Amino acid sequence: xxxxxxxxVRKFGPARTTVVGIARDAGMTHANVYRYFPSKEALFExxxxxxxxxxxxxxxxxxxxxxxxxxxxxxxxxxxHRAYRQELDSDPLLFELLVEALEKGKSSARKHRARxxxxxxxxxxxxxxxxxxxxxDRRRALSLIFDAAHRFIHPLSVRLDAATPAAALEARFExxxxxxxxxxxxxxx
Length: 189
Fold this sequence. Notes:
By secondary structure, the protein is mostly helical. It has two domains: 1-38, Orthogonal Bundle (Arc Repressor Mutant, subunit A), CATH 1.10.10; 48-186, Tetracycline Repressor, domain 2 (Orthogonal Bundle). The chain is built from ten helices and no strands. The chain has helices at residues 2-12, 19-26, 30-36, 40-64, 69-90, 92-103, 107-130, 138-153, 155-160, 166-186. Helix 5 (69-90) packs across helix 6 (92-103). The relative contact order is 0.12.
């Protein structure tokens, strides 16, 4: 059913996608769809969460890895940027569901943001504890990371940069990450 819903969003857009149409293509009644999802919005929430799960898994695995904290942090930030940009480029209407979820404070966006922040926080704390980062104030370090990376990892900003070539944008982000990591290592911010 999710694949059919995904196809409908791609074909018709979120506003014109209907539960009745999804049910018809799934060979069931719309009442049966409502057994699984209480509303069209709940169905869209699951569609959004389903494409974010692999990214969240990659971030968690990176955070749990044995690499130095600065390598993990760089890899994680780039993974977020690449996943968002790839979704924007390949499935702009599905990406729009994430943007809408963020704008409306829906649970899929809140949970995703919390998971991303928790994994990044874990790496920052590991870096401070191991001495890889001289900046010991966790909140200040996380603020630095999110402020520096905002343009490249916030879905609204990613959408605004849709016309910028992906390779050029990623090269710029790599320079920003290098600056942020240098600040974390030196402790001078």
